[in-house]
Amino acid sequence: MSTEFIPAAKPLIGDEEREAVDRVLRSGMIAQGPEVATFEQEFGAHFADGRPTVAVNSGTAGQHLGLLAAGVGPGDEVIVPSFTFAATGNSVALTGATPVFADIEPNSFTLDPESVRAAITPRTKGIMPVHLYGHPFLVDVLEAIAREHGLAIYEDAAQAHGASWSGRSVGTLGDFAMFSLYPTKNMTSGEGGMVTCATEELARGVRLLRNQGMETQYANEVIGFNARMTDVHAAIGRVQLTKVDAWTAQRQANAATLNEGLKGLGGVTTPMVADEAVHVYHQYTIRVDASERDRLRDALKEEHQVGSGVYYPIPNHRLPSLAHFAPDLHLPETERAATEVLSLPVHPSLTEGDLARIVAGVTAVLRAGA
């Protein structure tokens, strides 16, 4: 059996992406141009039922500009999970609004509806749920809460390209959705993000904000940013868009193999998937006892040459940068998950031998500690 190190994530860049970049470089149009415009149309058609789609230079920028375009600002509150990457809470804070942290439910690791309900105040403008690890948030009940209280939903779909709930695609569920195109996501543009919008008006707001507040050169309408995607990055993304469905199917097949291999192993809870959900497995995240998690991670790397990741070890409401928004807040499921989760490799480049070694490694380490 091979002992080559198995990384937790592995970007897939092939000759087609290199050729696309060379084509753009030869064209002389390197900054935002026709490749970006075409990529926006193709991405929106592929993932968001043709919704207006705006390309930006990072997922975080997309989230920030989407919130600004939606009118979120000082005096507003947006309910967010604490168990996620800090960009979710950061993007709210950067608008001048207040991120309000709610707990997760333990199966999907997404926002717990009852915790969301308890967090609503007269200042709440919207809810920003995260489709964490590639599993959609609990759409039906959160939508009902939002309707009941007149709140917007803003989707953090950074990890969920192609996921769906009851046949409805992630990216079409809220006022806007942000997809990340970071190198380790399910598809990449090298770096970048996409914002799918419910209305053309909102999309125009994001376009203005990404380009110094102007659509026509020198006719600045609002104070904006430089958050443009380049044609070089868009060219990479366009090629990746032709491959992502096959990669998603391979991720799902890899997850099924891991599920079967770890089935019945004491001390491990494999990812649970809601009946309504299509999970795209940006991460394959297991739970183990908190006393075993770090030992398992270290032993997999040192003894079995298997990488893994802890996403996320420090809840956002405990981070020095965000803790002042949530003094004395206790989120029990969030805090428990932060001590128990471990994400195993699930990326499409894994071989059958790699998957067998991952299963064997987890089994050996946990049985040795039993």
Please provide a brief summary of the model:
With 370 residues, the protein is α/β, with parallel strands linked by helices. The chain has helices at 15-27, 34-47, 59-69, 87-94, 113-119, 139-149, 200-210, 231-241, 244-262, 290-304, 332-340, 352-369, and strands at 53-56, 77-81, 98-102, 124-127, 152-156, 164-165, 168-169, 176-180, 193-197, 277-278, 284-287, 341-344.
Report the portion of residues in β strands. 5-15%
CATH topology of the largest domain: Aspartate Aminotransferase, domain 2
Note the overall shape.
globular
The biggest sheet, with number of strands, parallel, antiparallel or mixed sense and barrel status, is: 7 strands, mixed
Integer-rounded radius of gyration: 21 Å
Architecture of the largest domain, according to CATH?
3-Layer(aba) Sandwich
Helix content: 25-40%
**Number of separate strands:** 12
Q: Can you tell me the CATH superfamily of the largest domain?
A: Type I PLP-dependent aspartate aminotransferase-like (Major domain)
Q: Output the strand order for the largest sheet.
A: 1-9-8-5-4-2-3
Taking the alpha carbons of the first and last residues, their distance comes to 25 Å
